[in-house]
Specification:
heterodimer, A: 311 residues, alpha/beta, 13 helices, 39% helix, B: 467 residues, 7-stranded mixed β-sheet, 6-stranded mixed β-sheet, disordered N terminus
């Protein structure tokens, strides 16, 4: 049965009264992620906005077990939890590693890559607010071209972000997906699906940040949707090497038309200094990627076995 | 400087250049055998030890009862056997010289099915320690091993293991730290981690490595403080010695199962290592809970109080295995000694030979070999050193701009006590520089002379090297 707002489980694990900023997309995403896992989960969290969400000792608003771990160590911490459960013979608990984009793309990439190569049995979710938002918005490996941050204060960022999902795909994982807090049911279904899969599973969740990106708190959902509608964020999943567009990205592919990236940029204060040249650059980047995704979606099949086609 | 040149001219230049390394290696092998398992292995009890280790070894082997299982093991193998006998459940390690054979041995135990454990071949030492801390939090007994740069790379996680009060045991195969690259032995690596909240034990031979790892689990899981068992790279890690390997049944009698203070479980959700403010704060039930500073105090208190546990565990071990570790340091020739050599690890064994040389000349010299560096056994040391007029502290580490770490600790322990001994610090054996008993004896002789002439240098340590 397809999940919808009516039949979504009522049990809450991320309880009201957390310490995130108003309009936080992470809080929305996390709520649905924990619902999808039925609370049968141990979470490991590095330094990030999620640390803030989890509260301050001795009070937490989250009703699942969690260990806070240093910034670089998320993948290893999840590995340790998995190994410890296996060593002590405990079954039926999902391990969820959940880090921000800084903790994934930058400082945490080594431990994540190591764990993924070892095919450790856990779900890794990167919630991407495109910068070090917990420390007040500094540039990360996921910050988009042209964005002003605390460490790109005048010129804006001069590089495109790295494609983390593609990097993880190169680790031959059984399941990779992108998601977006503005499409919580798509996120829910992906987490739900990956719960039943063994090995390292990676989900990249787009989580707009109102204070960091400088848009009104009430516009979180709108910004997340615009990101998909302009093609800056594409929702897909790769299961056993089969690529599939999902949710709004699937519909956009059928309609065949994206909104111009300019519409997304003008809604956010962080792009106020973006140049026409950068907008063109961003549009080209989006167009090229979108064509790649469309081509992959059209093929729908895993790569052919080259050994068979060899003469 | 004069004194140093004197030491060098008498020792290094003459001997080292004509017979490079030869005498040092031979001395070390003989020396390491001096306290091999068998009769009379008694930690911390003053006694006269036979000069010839080889003679003593053969006689002790002959006397061992049928239960003894003497095997020729290098230090890495002894550590691996210790971890295996402790029934570790999760091992995470990353290879680094000279620790590599230790981690290879453990992976072989696991792959062959001789040890029922998860072996995680992590991609870095930072991850190795993280795997241990997280696995420990779901109830597994964990082990890792590393050296030098690996330990430095773990630094952040060492703090987290201790701060979270997780009883991880780590074998540190002591090695020099770069730059420049050096893969040989000194103790700069573990000394650099002394303020991370770990208990630190230094083994003097391979028997002590095996025994200390088994004891380390009992200590760590009693006081909930992680334990680092340190042993000198190559000097111990790659040198084979006879080691009495206890049976699994015996070790099981000594070491109970791990009882975690916290187990993460969805059935009883807990958040661990949450952001903790400086001041105490009330929980949802209105109960005032510790602030960050109170948690730090509890860690300090745990380390202070762990002395009792370390000695009790050592005593229990001695009763079961006939090898007594009921003291934080071991002593030899201390009864009438007015001159005391203090050193740590295998260096103290080398110094023992120097003591014998000096005794033959009529100097009343004793040796105090530190076994436990954290917690530092202040009160016991004051008592042990009460008759000393001169204390020569040999360090295989240096706190740059100050002196050797052991020397600073000794000075701090003696401050305000009745002990008014002159203290002299010597830095030796950095980056694998061979340490000869003759050099140590020369250094002590020179200190005796300068003490008499009133020229004893107490401001800076003396370096036994070519500058």
């Amino acid at each position: 049965m397809k999940v919808n707002a009516v039949n979504l489980t009522e049990t809450e694990y991320a309880l009201p009264g957390n310490r995130t900023c108003p309009g936080c997309a992470l809080a929305l995403a996390y709520r649905h992620i924990l619902k999808a896992l039925d609370g049968q989960v141990i979470v490991t969290v590095p330094a990030s906005c999620l640390t803030v969400l989890h509260g301050m000792y001795p009070i937490t608003s989250v009703n699942v077990p969690c260990v806070n771990t240093p910034f670089a160590s998320t993948g290893a911490s999840a590995t340790g939890l998995v190994a410890g459960l296996r060593a002590t013979g405990k079954k039926g608990i999902t391990i969820l590693a959940m880090a921000g984009d800084g903790g994934t793309h930058d400082i945490g990439i080594q431990s994540l890559s190591g764990a993924a190569e070892r095919q450790e049995d856990f779900i890794y979710i990167c919630y991407d607010n495109e910068g070090y938002m917990n420390t007040g918005n500094q540039r990360s490996g996921s910050t988009p071209l042209g964005a002003i941050t605390g460490t790109t204060p005048v010129l804006g960022k001069r590089q495109n972000p790295k494609d983390m999902a593609a990097i993880m795909e190169a680790h031959c994982l059984p399941y990779i997906a992108t998601a977006n807090a503005s499409y919580p049911l798509d996120l829910y279904e992906k987490v739900r699906k990956t719960k039943g899969i063994k090995g390292t599973r990676f989900i990249h969740v787009f989580t707009p940040c109102a204070p960091g990106w400088q848009f009104p708190y009430s516009d979180t959902i709108k910004i997340g949707q615009l990101a998909v509608e302009t093609g800056l964020v594409v929702l897909y999943e790769v299961e056993d090497d089969v690529f599939r567009l999902t949710s709004a990205s699937e519909s956009l592919a059928q309609k065949g038309k994206l909104k111009p990236v300019r519409e997304y940029l003008t809604e956010q204060g962080r792009f106020k200094n973006v140049t026409e040249e950068q907008i063109a650059q961003l549009q080209d980047w989006v167009n090229a990627r979108w064509q790649c995704y469309l081509a992959r979606a059209a093929s729908l099949q895993p790569a052919t076995d080259i050994t068979e086609s060899a003469p | 400087m004069f004194s140093l040149l004197a030491v060098l001219s008498r020792c290094c230049h003459k001997e080292n250049h004509t017979h490079p390394n030869k005498s040092g290696i031979l001395q070390r092998v003989r020396n390491m055998h001096a306290d091999m398992p068998g009769q009379g292995y008694n930690h911390g009890v003053t006694k006269k030890t036979a000069l010839s280790g080889t003679r003593k070894l053969s006689s002790s082997l002959a006397k061992k009862d049928n239960k003894a299982n003497i095997r020729l093991l290098d230090g890495n193998q002894a550590a691996a056997e210790g971890a295996k006998l402790s029934r570790v459940q999760v091992i995470a390690a990353y290879p680094i010289t000279p620790q590599t054979p230790l981690t290879e041995a453990l992976s072989e135990f696991v792959e062959r099915g001789d040890l029922k454990a998860e072996y995680v071949a992590v991609e870095s030492e930072h991850s190795a320690m993280t795997v241990c801390t997280s696995a420990s939090l779901v109830g597994a007994r964990t082990f890792t091993a590393t050296s030098a740069h690996g330990l430095a790379y773990m630094h952040e996680m060492l703090h987290w293991a201790a701060g979270a009060r997780l009883p991880v045991v780590l074998a540190c195969v002591n090695r020099a730290i770069g730059a420049p690259w050096n893969i040989l032995n000194d103790q700069q690596d573990s000394i650099s981690q002394r303020d991370t909240g770990w208990i630190q034990i230094y083994a003097r031979n391979n028997q002590e490595i095996l025994d200390s790892i088994i004891q380390a689990y009992k200590i760590a899981e009693t006081v909930y403080v992680p334990v680092m068992v340190c042993f000198d790279g190559y000097v111990l890690s790659h040198t084979e010695m006879p080691v009495d390997v206890p049976s699994q049944e015996e070790v099981d009698k000594f070491l109970p199962r791990y009882k975690p203070h916290t187990i993460l479980d969805p059935a009883n959700p807990k958040n661990y290592n949450l952001v903790t403010l400086a001041d105490p704060r009330v929980n949802a039930e209105g109960v005032l809970c510790h602030g960050y500073m109170e948690l730090r105090y509890l860690l300090q208190e745990a380390l202070q109080d762990s002395t009792e546990t370390i000695m009790k565990v050592g005593q229990e071990f001695g009763e079961l295995f006939d090898r007594n570790y009921a003291n934080m340091f071991w002593e030899d020739d201390m009864n009438d000694a007015d001159i005391v050599i203090v050193a740590m690890g295998s260096l103290a064994m080398e110094a023992k030979v120097a003591v014998d040389m000096l005794r033959e000349e009529g100097h009343k010299v004793g040796i105090l070999g530190l076994r436990v560096f954290r917690p530092f056994p202040k009160a016991a040391l004051v008592k042990a050193l009460e008759k000393a007029q001169l204390i020569a502290v040999f360090d295989k580490n240096i706190s740059y701009g100050s002196e050797g770490a052991t020397c600073s600790e000794i000075k701090a322990a003696l401050y305000g006590s009745q002990v008014k001994a002159a203290i002299r610090n010597f830095i030796v054996g950095l980056g694998g520089r061979d340490v000869k008993a003759r050099e140590l004896a020369d250094a002590v002789r020179e200190a005796i002379t300068s003490l008499k002439t009133g020229a004893l240098n107490i401001e800076h340590p003396e370096w036994i090297c070519y500058i």
